Every structure is written in structure tokens, then in C-alpha cells.
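# step 3/5: fold
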Amino acid sequence: MNFRSKLFKVLSCVFETNKQFTLSEVYQISEGPMSYYYPNNNTIRASIRENLQQLRDEGFLTFVDNKGTYSFT
């Protein structure tokens, strides 16, 4: 399972009841699990941002504003 699919699973479980979430919330929730799955990755936050952008581009997420707010589509 790749980084993006793991991140998406973490997001899906944690934000199941919330339609919107911030990048800061994603960091708080997912940095620990992602560090566990990828112990040699020193750029977890950059990987999280990149994967959120990919999920947005694929239509799973919408970028709401310039303050780091996303929503599930």
C-alpha cells in the first residue's frame, strides 16, 4: 500500500463525520501513523501536502480556501 492510500485511509477514518478539515488537523492526526509506516521518510509533512493535492486533483477532496482548509467531495 502506498503513502497516498494510507493517508487517505487515515483521513477517511478520522474525518468520517466532518466534511471540512484543515491542513494543521491532518498533520496532528496523520504524522504519527505516517511516521510509523515510513520511518525513513524525513519529509512527512511535504508528502502529506503532496498527497492531499493529488487527492484534490483526482476529485476526492476540494481545496476550500488559502488557509489550508479542505473538504471531502
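# step 4/5: annotate
The chain has one domain: 3-72.
# step 5/5: archive (pending)
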